[in-house]
Amino acid sequence: MEIWINPACSKCRGAVSLLDAEGADYTVRRYLEDVPSPEEIRAVLDRLGLEPWDITRTQEAVAKELGLKEWPRDAGSRERWIVALSEHPKLIQRPIITADDGTAVVARSEEAVRDALGRGA
């Protein structure tokens, strides 16, 4: 199990605290420093069953600079979104937990963290 976090994020700190309290075996990836490649983002999206725009923080300043709200959300634009997430990792929604069963969750709630724990953590 791996969790992508920004240590400055309260939701990330809460998720890590819950994982620790449950005795979970996991690794931490500080994705702002250890930036995921487009391939890694594609793999996580597949595990999440989501599209890149579903995990994009559109309120971030860089999102506004890029005009992301106006970008098409279709198959033809998917790669453009993935590249933007890789080039600007601050845009990636957090925390993301990749579970041992091959799935992943955006763990912004205690329920989502517990869901990941129940998937073979």
Automatic annotation (TrEMBL):
It holds the Pfam family ArsC. Transmembrane segments: none annotated. InterPro entries: Arsenate_reductase (IPR006659), Arsenate_reductase-like (IPR006660), Thioredoxin-like_sf (IPR036249). It comes from the Bacteria. Keywords: Oxidoreductase. Belongs to the ArsC family. This is Arsenate reductase. It comes from Streptomyces badius. The gene is arsC.
